Amino acid sequence: MVLEKFKIWVLATRANTLVVSICPIFLGSALALKVTNINFSVFLLTLCYGLFLHIGTNLSNDYYDYLKGVDTDNRIAPFSTIQLNLTSLKEIKIAFSLSFILAFFTGLILAFKSNILVATLFPIPIFFGLYYTKGKNPLGYMGLGEILVLIFFGPFASFGSYYLQTMKFSVLPIVVGLAPGLFSTAILVVNNLRDIDCDKRAKKNTLSVRFGKNFTKVEYYICLIAIFFIPVIYFSITKNYLVLLANFAILLAPIKTIKNFKDLKVLNIALQKTVLSMILFSLIFFLGILF
User: Fold this and answer.
1) How many CB atoms neighbour CB 251 within 10 A?
2) What digits encode the pLDDT tens for the residues 202-247?
3) How far is Cα 200 from Cα 219, in angstroms, rounded to an integer?
4) CB-neighbour burial class of residue 5 (10 A; exposed 0-12, middle 13-18, buried 19+)
5) 23 class by beta-carbon count within 10 Å (0-12 exposed, 13-18 middle, 19+ buried)
6) CA nearest neighbour of 181 among 215, 222, 219, 148
7) What is the pLDDT of residues 5-33, one digit of tens each?
């Protein structure tokens, strides 16, 4: 019984997507390790903050998308636990509220361990995570998803994890953070491309809905091209050639699938391959930074 409930909540939180928030934190921490000893408790708190924030965002998105009629039986994406009647709306609301509260208090602890800058910045992603789908004019319904994902799952997370360890400003974690940010954006782009018909019916005006499938494909290609230059820029600054190997991971990205697909259902596989490409890229980049 307990194991079954655990599996349901793993599904509800979309645990397979949480790597998106883990990658930039590890990259920022790797950069910090080059200049100082890592405070492991701060690292764990940073990781918990990122995970609580991401889980809260995932759950609240499912909650409000369901209420707004976005998640219907016609969707191509995997059904949410609400649709499958595995969890109630009340349970999901309690869960995402608890996740955001935990993110807030984790951020508060980090603020006490650091300074006023962290205290000022850490509540911002919580606000955006909640209002991405909440309210009369949710941010995700206004075509702002790509820019928010790029920032918060990219430079914000990598620079934040770096700064919490070093208390120093550096452009390097911002540049490096663009890679996971762009990968996360590419993942969102595939997601929006897959859901374009359902989103259009529900008046969820993502960039895909506004500008169409060809525009969305170009978005994806631009993300991958931009990612390629991040290790190159890092190499030009540090002369560390090992990070260049990370670019081989881009070859795993389903470029041909995105270009030639006929059935939107194949984009579920394209989504998984993009995530896999991100994981491998981040792992190689992480090891390249350290060695």
Assistant:
1) 10
2) 889 999 999 999 999 999 999 999 999 999 999 999 999 999 999 9
3) 18
4) exposed
5) buried
6) 148
7) 899 999 999 999 999 999 999 999 999 99
Domains of the chain: 20-290 (1.10.600)
CA-nearest of 84, 208, 103 to 146 is: 208
In three-state secondary structure terms, 276 is helix
Do the beta carbons of residue 67 and residue 31 sit within 8 Å?
Answer: no
Token pair of 111 as six digits? 């603020």
Pair 273, 251: CB distance under 8 Å:
no
Confidence of residue 69 (pLDDT cuts 50, 70, 90): confident
Residue 182: Cβ-neighbour burial (10 angstroms; 0-12, 13-18, 19+): buried
In tens, the pLDDT along 89-146 reads: 999 999 999 999 999 999 999 999 999 999 999 999 999 999 999 999 999 999 999 9
CA distance 275 to 19: 8
The amino acid at residue 247 is N
Q: What separation in angstroms does the CA of 238 have from each of 70, 160, 233?
A: 46, 21, 9
Q: Specify whether the CB–CB gap between 17 and 78 falls below 8 A.
A: no
For residues 176 and 180, give the distance between their C-alpha atoms in angstroms, rounded to a whole number: 8
